[in-house]
Amino acid sequence: MTAAQDTTSEDMPWGEVAPEAARKLLVAAVEAFAERGYHATTTRDIAGRAGMSPAALYIHYKTKEELLHRISRIGHDRALEVLSAASDGGGTPSERLAEAVSSFVRWHARRHDTARVVQYEIDALSEEHRTEIVELRRRSDAVVREILRDGVETGEFDVPDVPGTTLAVLSLCIDVARWFNVRGHRTPEEVGELYADLVLRMVSARA
Amino acid sequence: MTAAQDTTSEDMPWGEVAPEAARKLLVAAVEAFAERGYHATTTRDIAGRAGMSPAALYIHYKTKEELLHRISRIGHDRALEVLSAASDGGGTPSERLAEAVSSFVRWHARRHDTARVVQYEIDALSEEHRTEIVELRRRSDAVVREILRDGVETGEFDVPDVPGTTLAVLSLCIDVARWFNVRGHRTPEEVGELYADLVLRMVSARA
After folding, report:
1. What domain of life does the UniProt record list for this protein's source (chains A, B) (predicted)?
2. Chain A residues within an 8 Å CB radius of B198
């Protein structure tokens, strides 16, 4: 995935959600959850932000949790797509890892509101939905773990603890969503490049 | 700071807060904010968790924001203490960095509820309190930045972007508070050791 490709979704956030009223409500829900937290937001707040009535909201979403689930599901699907595209894009394990980290970071920087909701409100999901989302996270973990294992096999990487390093790499990228807006002196592209270099150092033997 | 020393505060969380009623209310507030978010929590909820009346709460805290400010202030003071103790503890820049990272990680793992409130609810502070907390963060950043600069000077470290790497190191440690409880297959000590090793790799020249 190139920087040009992964900006497409920026032009029309949540473009995959139809009809337009359902998309507007989702955008409003992300804003409200990111600003005030899931538990402090009512469906009335969300409808109001979208310029609709609570009754209009219920046509598209039966509960507030259904909105959170849609947001989490789409967010995690996108995150997995971004990582998989980088991993399957060919090249050496170093190239695949650099691409995975930089594109994952760009996504968390650009979509920081969505990422915060997706990452911080997982406990508010129903048990069934939480299980589904945890399974998607396992698949994201597996993509990175496989790149690390491939690099260890080719001898490019020196990674004594593959699961622990996988966790650290993903955690480093995810936390970009927390700080990005606050100290935004760098572009998503610049953070992506810096982090790809730092992660390659993490998995390499020290001089 | 040794592992033994930094568990002291675990025996009596918020031991610095007196009288006992004020301490109990702070503990209840951390629990409630971590579970439901700041905006979804009322002072009535907090008083109820502490087994007190709302009137008893107002003797100690005039507003909900005052509780958040106390939590954020103490949390950030502790974080700065942990980092400064490691930095001032002597040894080479590598030893100081390893100690700073492992003790900071242990703190975020053990006190993950507090750390989440402190890190995620900063926008809910009043402007005056927010400015005060941002200044404490700048001082934490400065401690890590100085260790990195010292290591670059002695030639132990190879860090092309000191401010960016400082940001990444602290971010990696802070995000432990997000995932620690969920996937807790490792002890705070084990995560601290793993992360110290990964961070030393980040600041070293690649083989």
Report:
1. Bacteria
2. 165, 168, 202
Tell me the per-residue pLDDT of B149-201, one tens digit each, with 9 for 90 and over. 999 999 999 999 999 999 999 999 999 999 997 556 899 999 999 999 999 99
The ipTM of this complex is: 0.90
Residue indicated by tokens 């807790």: B184
Cβ-Cβ contacts under 8 Å, B205 against chain A: 206-207
To the nearest whole Å, the CA of B160 is away from the closest chain A CA by 10
Alpha carbon distance B117, B61 (integer Å)? 18
Nearest-CA distance from A103 to chain B in Å? 16
DSSP B155: T
Task: Decide: B64 and B129 in contact? Cβ < 8 Å.
Answer: no
Show contacts of B2-11: CB within 8 Å, 24+ apart.
Answer: B3/B106, B3/B189, B6/B82, B6/B103, B6/B106, B6/B107, B7/B110, B9/B78, B9/B111, B10/B110, B10/B111
